[in-house]
Specification:
2 domains; 12 helices; about 0% strand
């Protein structure tokens, strides 16, 4: 069986962008530090956080882990610092001189990581008790975090060139056509094997859908694509007498099979992006309308909560 004929553009290794290594190092450092902090608090506070309010007062850890305790108050300060870091991304987009600092994709990566870590820290700061004004602020914060995940997913559906300039529909179609030609040249899988993977609704059907239907459909296609790719990898490896690892969800060591699988995965991904491009842009604009009020509401409530804490002398 022959493999896919590669072109120079396809086989060329992209040059590492300046600052990429440092960015990855800092990103992983923040992730590891956040995971270590979370794990440490879970282990140390397990026998405290599981107590009811009446029994917590008698715990020797109460003076440390209560919201105004030695550890609790510092977790609150760390949570505030993380949220201030979150808003740097929005400020960077608004201030022209600041927008020239660093790489937009790098800023977004840290924005996402802080958006995950900040609610975790605040949850431990509250000692898992969400009442009163602080409780309202907490649930608004959770709504902001969840909407942030949705926004990040929608943002990824809008193709970008070099992480900044939007790829045109013409470029998407040209790349898709190139991949289709490569798929015709391969003999690892028959066209009927991957026809279902590349099957999509018509543009007219997508345009007639509501925002919720489009978002659900994009999610469903992404999940189906991953399982479909795994199934095709298993089928292709069987034809070569090999076995897939983890049901074909991870890459094999067979270069000929993986070349075809990569081409199929990219073709299905690009076709989906091209189909949903205009709807994804509409969804992203709509997401901003929903996300911002929640963010501003949280800032107001969190500021009131901090002011009350200061006035009552907890810090």
């Amino acid at each position: 069986m022959s493999s896919i004929a590669t072109t120079p553009a396809a086989s060329a290794v992209p040059a590492r962008r300046p600052g990429e290594a440092l960015h990855n190092f800092l990103l992983y450092a923040v992730v590891i530090a956040g995971a270590a902090l979370t794990l440490g608090l879970m282990i140390y506070g397990a026998n405290y956080y599981t107590l009811d309010q009446a029994h917590r007062v008698a715990s020797p850890k109460h003076g440390y882990l209560k919201p105004s305790g030695v550890v609790g108050i510092r977790l609150g300060l760390l949570g505030v610092a993380l949220f201030l870091g979150l808003f740097l991304y929005a400020i960077r987009k608004s201030w022209k001189w600041f927008s020239k600092v660093g790489n937009s994709r790098h800023w977004l990566n840290f924005h996402v990581i802080l958006g995950v870590l900040a609610p975790v820290v605040i949850t431990f700061h509250s000692s898992f008790k969400f009442r009163g004004l602080a409780g309202i602020a907490y649930w608004i914060m959770i709504a902001v975090a969840l909407s942030g995940f949705i926004g990040r997913y929608i943002y990824a559906q809008i193709p970008r060139s070099l992480g900044a300039a939007e790829v045109s529909m013409k470029e998407l179609r040209a790349e898709s056509a190139r991949l289709a030609e490569r798929l015709k040249a391969q003999e690892v899988l028959a066209p009927e094997d991957f026809a279902a993977l590349l099957r999509l609704p018509s543009p007219a059907e997508v345009q007639s859908m509501s925002s919720q239907e489009v978002l659900w459909l994009m999610l469903r296609f992404d999940l189906a694509r991953r399982w479909g790719i795994a199934e095709l990898r298993r089928k292709a490896l069987r034809s070569f007498g090999g076995n897939a690892v983890f049901w074909g969800l991870v890459r094999s060591h067979h270069p000929q099979v993986e070349s075809v699988i990569d081409c199929l995965n990219e073709e299905a991904y690009l076709n989906k992006k091209a189909l949903f491009l205009s709807k994804a842009q509409e969804l992203f604009q709509l997401w901003h309308v929903v996300h911002r009020p929640f963010s501003y509401s949280f800032v107001v409530l969190a500021t009131i909560h901090i002011a009350v804490v200061l006035l009552l002398g907890y810090f």
